[in-house]
Amino acid sequence: MTRPPIRIVLADDERMVRTALRAILSAEPDLEVVGEAATGAEAVSVVREARPDVALMDVRMPGTDGIRATEQILAVLPEPPRIVVVTTFENDSYVYDALRAGAAGFLLKRADADTLVRAVRLVAHSDTLLFPSAVRALAAEHARANPAPPAWVARLTGREGEVLRLMATGLTNAEIARSMGVGPATVKTHVASVLAKTGSRDRTQAVVRAYEAGFMNGR
Amino acid sequence: MTRPPIRIVLADDERMVRTALRAILSAEPDLEVVGEAATGAEAVSVVREARPDVALMDVRMPGTDGIRATEQILAVLPEPPRIVVVTTFENDSYVYDALRAGAAGFLLKRADADTLVRAVRLVAHSDTLLFPSAVRALAAEHARANPAPPAWVARLTGREGEVLRLMATGLTNAEIARSMGVGPATVKTHVASVLAKTGSRDRTQAVVRAYEAGFMNGR
DNA sequence: ATCCCGCTCCGCCGCACGGGGGAGGACCGC
DNA sequence: GCGGTCCTCCCCCGTGCGGCGGAGCGGGAT
Questions:
Q1: Same domain, B20 and B112
Q2: What is the DSSP secondary structure assignment for residue B169, as one 8-state letter?
Q3: Nearest to A170 among B122, B131, B205 (CB)
Q4: Residue A219 in this model has a pLDDT that exceeds 60
Q5: Does residue B82 share a domain with residue B67?
Q6: Strand partners, B36
Q7: Does one domain contain both B124 and B103?
Q8: Closest-CA residue in chain B for A104?
Q9: Region B160-167: what's the mean pLDDT?
Q10: Which residues, renumbered to this chain, carry the PTM 4-aspartylphosphate (chains A, B) (predicted)?
Q11: Cβ count near A162 (within 10 Å)
Q12: Total domains, chain A
């Protein structure tokens, strides 16, 4: 069962990293590096030209980063490569973005050569492997849970934001006033502004908007 | 580089499934089925005896299901096997539970033999593979985003639940009444019950509770 | 047959809330 | 200096909301 070699594109802004990766991967007979890129934009065009099976994509790159490049590749190409996103720290928020962008895999730079090779073979050969729709669903849920905040969030002034947060904990105007150390009339003014800017008629609607907008994420 | 064979335990309540899995896996020289179990409890004891490298765990089993068995195995054994959870439908809520329980992999029953074998080799050989802490973090976030609903959720009657959902979209009592096809007085009664059962004084507080309790997950 | 519960309504009352005004002071940029 | 924004606070008024008590009706349990 001899398969054609796995075609790989490397995208990393540091030449040394690319060289190291190429050395590791080229040592395997079934792997073949067919292109390199130093920027996100370059990665997109190189992938479009070389049509690899797998792309190793660094997150931090000048210009368009690896995440955006991943999005663009998956959006543009009809049969995109499996994209493995590479980063240094595992607890990066990049992880979520990478999965959401459609990355097939996620790899740490500190990974040893064996792990790297195995990961490449894995994503290349598997149509749907270990975490098929599961990860996708989790990432989608993450996206649903952390949507892009609406425009009105930015328009809220500092005080109005405070008031909205307190509103969204179920406090009355009087309680908010005490909590903020101002008069009730002031709170009423801020509440009115919040209602206007959020397009709500109720404080209840404003609270709903706050939650739906992810404004209350983090207490 | 000849390694010792990968020791595998199969846990599935259907004998035919176990037989089929054993047939597929035994055909590979580097795989060895060292035990079978038909229930979750049995799986725990068999794994404890046989000390396999990998356990294929069906979710639906009489008594303790695969998820609980996974939890117990990982909690009890010092060097637990890599557990691959097997189920029929990929959009099961089991997926989240499996990942949260600490399953190393997730496999669909419709997977072909090649995928199955590859998955087993994969989880067996990899200390930390493609989605190391990423999946764990996502699953943890899922757990945080979907906490166990408070007791009052169960106490709500059907109508009260409907009213709460409509409240939590920012509707007034009159609008809820129209939306439900009942009189405003009826809605007031239900609202009062909801406030009492949720321990809220406001409709606003009730809405907050609804969101915090994950009551509004899914629009 | 009885009780309990859920769903459906009614009236009355007090009040926090929201709308519509206005006003003064602090800060910033042109 | 002057306009703009933000924060602060005031009054009046209408009303949606929530608390209280009561009532009829149907179904399931005992």
A1: yes
A2: T
A3: B205
A4: no
A5: yes
A6: B10
A7: yes
A8: B130
A9: 90
A10: 58
A11: 16
A12: 2
Instruction: Examine the fold and report which residue of B145, B161, B177 is the final residue of a domain before the chain moves on.
Output: B145
> Which among B110, B130, B146 is the top mutation candidate for probing chain A, defined by the most A β-carbons within 10 Å of its own β-carbon?
B130
Number of neighbours of residue A15 by Cβ within 10 angstroms: 10
Chain C positions with a protein C-beta closer than 7 Å: 5-11, 16-23
Residues of A within 8 A of B169 (CB-CB) are 208
- Shared domain check, B193 and B141: no
Q: Order across the sheet with B82-87: list the strands.
A: B31-37, B6-11, B54-58, B82-87, B105-108
Tokens for B32? 């060895």
Spatial distance between the Cα atoms of B161 and B198, rounded to a whole number of angstroms: 11
The CA–C1' separation of B198 and D28, in angstroms, is: 26
Instruction: Tell me how crowded residue B217 is: count the other CB atoms within 10 A of its CB.
Output: 13
| Nearest nucleotide over every DNA/RNA strand to the B156 CA, judged by C1' | C6
Q: Could you tell me if A82 and A121 lie in one domain?
A: yes
Neighbours of B148 (CB within 10 A): 9
pLDDT tens digits for B84-139?
A: 888 775 545 566 667 667 777 777 776 678 778 877 887 777 543 444 444 444 55
How far apart, in whole angstroms, are the C-alpha atoms of residue A122 and residue A111?
15
Helices (H), B38-132: 40-50, 66-76, 94-101, 113-125
Look over chain B and give the mean of its residue pLDDT values, rounded to a whole number.
81
CA separation for the pair B109, B37 (Å, rounded)? 17
Q: Which two tokens stand for residue B158?
A: 């059907």
**Inter-axis angle of helices A66-76 and A94-101, nearest 10:** 10
